[in-house]
What does this fold into?
Amino acid sequence: MNRREFLVGSAASVSAGVAERKGFAKGVAVASLPPFPRDFLFGAATSCVQIEGAAWEDGKGESIWDCFAEKPGAIIDGSNPSLACDSYHQWSLDLALVKEMGLQSYRFSIAWPRILPIGRGQVNERGVDHYNKIIDALLSAGIQPLVTAYHWDLPQVLQDKGGWPNRDTAERFADYVQILAKRFGDRVVRWCLLNEPSAFTIFAYGFGGHAPGIRDRGQMLRAIHTSNLAQGAAFRAMKAIRPHSKVGIAHAMQLYDPATSSETDRQACERFHAFNNLWFLDPAFTGEYPDAFVNGVPYEEMGWKPGDEQRVRATLDFSGMNFYGDVQLVAAGAGKFMNEAELLNGIDAHVTRRQRNTAAAMERVSLWMATRYSRPVEITETGFGGHDVLTPKGKVHDQTRIIWLSDAFSGIRRAQLKGAKIVSAHVWSLIDDWEWQGGFRIHMGLAWVDFMNPIQRIPKDSARWYGNLVRSRSLTPTHR
Ligand code: FCB
It folds into this structure.
């Protein structure tokens, strides 16, 4: 499944009929689940490109998304992130919502080009001031920040020098993270270095669906390796300055099952899993890439150098996962991989279909994550994309999202009861936002935003539901 399919598939299920609802309704007997532990953090998440706007203000440099959005056809609705939710100016409305729901954690990202407009060199103090205000306001309200250092907005100047396929970007990223450690690390303890490296490497440089929109197998492979080098270098940079920080990743986590019991499908599924998951997690812990390609790991094409087995290592403090549901079935197929044979020929596998059971998938995936890396798990994102409607009375009745979230949280609770140390969960998203190449067509927020005039956040029914969950710490049966 590519990202466009993911967004559209997720949205399509809002209006889907009885069959789809039955899938959700498979759900769970939530009434029997004990409350969430007292120290479990309920949160919500956003990212700077998707909400901030002010793309050209206060010294911010151009990011690859500012540029990419200008390409005809790149964004479904022709929109761009220059205004989005105007959170650069309206951030106190966002935090008011966080407080209203009683959340204990807020995950947001820092814009690299706001801190370093050309990716390196002189720090833009106005950018630093902006994030200082948010961090201080969160802490004074007793809300823990979880800060993402990179949520896909590479400074365009660095892309002009080759972007993620250029090994040097790893060093630039570590220098940037060192600045974050110095300027914010006295107050911010929890850091996600990278958000979904699989998306900003495979999807961005392999399939061209994300900025910078490149379709090239070699660039994709080098970008993957640079992202792992960047994580290792940035981890060491942060720890050198803030040894007590808690540093992890936000990985796009999905598990797969073989489409049939045949040996070829089983092996194809294993390679698919290795490429999409393990390649972004294992190197940090083991210094190695497990086999994903039929003919072994293409080290040369990836730009591997002697000593990299040490450079990619990072003993991450937590495993962060973004979860959007379902198990996918993978089959061996003659050179087929997400219908992009020419790019990835060698993995020889493709997704055949999805199985909808959010609760079971969440339980299984988070148990896998907790067990494989023996780290506390932070659910860095989970949420539901739909086409929401604001009623004339100013309400948004997003019952399908409530059902989805209820299933997702019951999956988390069940995994905890089976021993997984899951310490937090962040709903994506706090507010409706600019969904990358999906533009403004997909609503994912707990609150409605009018993108023509983003001066208000209107809590949806799901925000009230979530507030009740946060306060009671208990899931109650949901009307399906
Ligand atoms: C994730 C991204 C996040 C958001 C959700 C819907 O892959 O990390 O920014 O777009 O998808």
About this structure: Residues 6-27 have pLDDT under 50 and may be disordered. Residues 47, 50, 195-196, 199, 252, 322, 381, 428, 435-436, 444 surround beta-D-fucopyranose (CB under 6 Å).
